[in-house]
Sequence to fold (95 residues):
Amino acid sequence: MLAMIDFDYLELLQLKLCMDMTKDKMFMGGDMRRHASITEKVETELRMLDGVSENSEDEETPFDRLMRWKKENQTGRGYPWTADESGRPLSEESP
Fold:
């Protein structure tokens, strides 16, 4: 039976970071292949959530995508993504 794990965007970014940090720790062939396979699946899922095709020459960096996602999903509860690029709080009056 195949178990599916439902990650949200930020969880996938965190997993991608963990995969990037552990890539050099793999030393056996099987470990390297599984690590590469998991990394590829995480990256594919992130691209799907971003709406970017695998063949796209998207110039937007992962950080830019994260900031766009945060802005699109802000809640107004004082989270860090309720601030503009300069760190000023966003308000209803902001352009």
About this structure: The radius of gyration is 17 Å. The chain has three helices and no strands.
